[in-house]
Design brief:
402 residues, seven-stranded antiparallel beta sheet, alpha+beta, globular, five-stranded mixed beta sheet, 2 domains, Nucleotidyltransferase, domain 5
Length: 402
């Protein structure tokens, strides 16, 4: 089983500067390789430069610039070139699929935030034995960096990545051969319905509150964004105060993201411990949070009719604040590790179908919270009805699995 472990780094002041230089030099390598591909495509009869050709030049690049490129791991630089190669592969695949291609762009130093070491022991090493009860990771050109390891690492470490988020540094260990942590069976099955009033509702009628971390931080975010936008365009990205205001906005968003992630882990852990089979809706949050298309006014050229864009924007904000996709990803990972089963079912009409008689109509859901069947009179909470229908739709899959 594959797993990734993410730990906070505790670098010294000198190591922090060296980590920043490592990102800067890898960013320079990435942009230089991108420029080479662009020039070859434009001036040499659309010749494509591939990863193998650029990787063969690394030896000469390191010899030409030993201070900036020669001090870092050769394999990490190869990983940076592979990163560019994957970006071009995705670009050409989107062209073939008829999608918006999105040509790979140059990276600014502030937007190049990670470096990958493809193999433990090649330019980096994860110390499995603690020194003075403190774990460390060894990085070429930086030294031994202390790690705040809050849980044990299981399996074999394959790749190591260093990532910057604001002023924090993290190490990410990708491991294979991770043993499963089987939980004792409970013989319980549950269906869950995702919502914005409640984060989720189970088929047993239990509601999990929606913490609304983004909504509670709206005031602080708005104030920080106003201060950031108050700077004139000519002073942006150059003044110390502007950089400080930008870091303030980034810190608030990072805090909201950490709060949401911590809450989702706790909710999923409770579900995995209590149920053997967990059934949920198959949701496409990207499509659900799209802005409504404009409605041109045929009588007045250049004018548009109301399309409920403001109301849809509020709903989209609530959906994204709930983080359904993050929760379902965590559920899949924890269920796999615990030996539980997760089933995704079609989400269409789960809140409009009567679980008692099966009658489907929009009129069954009178309000956002109330469900009343117009055929048989069954009444209940709308989210609970959705969870019951989700569980009922998993009956065929459960029979096939049995």
């Amino acid at each position: 089983m594959l797993r990734a472990y993410r730990f906070l780094l505790r670098p010294t002041v000198r190591q922090t500067l060296a980590l920043g230089e490592m990102l800067r030099d890898h960013c320079s390598l990435y942009n230089g390789a991108l420029q080479e591909r662009r020039d070859a495509y434009r001036h040499f009869s659309k010749t494509r430069v591939r990863y193998g050709m650029q990787s063969a030049q690394l030896k000469d690049i390191r010899a030409f610039d030993p201070e900036r490129q020669g001090r870092w791991s050769f394999s990490s630089q190869q990983a940076t070139l592979r990163r560019l190669d994957k970006a071009f592969a995705a670009f050409f695949s989107r062209i073939k699929a008829g999608q918006t291609p999105g040509y790979p762009r140059f990276k600014g130093v502030g937007h190049f935030d990670s470096v990958t070491f493809p193999k433990d022991g090649d330019g980096c090493r994860w110390d499995s034995t603690p020194h003075d009860r403190q774990r460390r990771v060894r990085l070429q050109g930086i030294g031994q960096v202390r790690v705040h390891q809050h849980r044990p690492v299981r399996g074999r470490v394959r790749t190591i990545s260093v990532k910057r988020e604001g002023r924090r540094w993290y190490v990410i260990l990708a491991c294979d051969e991770v043993p499963r942590e089987q939980l004792p069976p409970t013989a319980a099955v549950v269906g869950i319905n995702m919502g914005v009033t409640h984060l989720l509702t189970t088929s047993e009628g239990e509601h999990v509150a929606h913490p609304r971390f983004l909504a509670f931080s709206t005031g602080a975010l708005a104030e920080a964004q106003r201060r950031l936008d108050a700077f004139p365009l000519r002073t942006r990205r150059r003044s110390k105060k502007h950089r400080s205001a930008a870091r303030k906005v980034a810190r608030l968003h990072a805090k909201i993201r950490r709060q949401r992630l911590d809450h989702h882990h706790k909710v999923v852990l409770k579900l995995v411990r209590e149920y053997d089979v967990i059934v949920h809706e198959r949701l496409n949050t990207v499509s659900m949070t799209k802005a409504p298309p404009p409605k041109p006014d045929l009588e007045q050229p250049g004018a548009f009719l109301p399309n409920q864009a403001a109301a849809k924007a509020g709903l989209n904000r609530s959906i994204l604040d709930a983080g359904w996709g993050i929760l379902l990803n965590i559920l899949a990972n924890k269920a796999e590790s615990a030996g539980r089963r997760v089933i995704a079912v079609d989400a269409r009409n789960t809140s409009r179908t009567c679980p008692a008689c099966g009658h489907v109509t929009k009129a069954n859901r009178t309000t956002q919270a109330k469900f009343a069947c117009v055929s048989c009179g069954y009444a209940s909470n709308a989210d609970h009805v959705g969870a019951l229908n989700v569980l009922n739709r998993a009956g065929l899959a459960l029979c096939d699995g049995a």
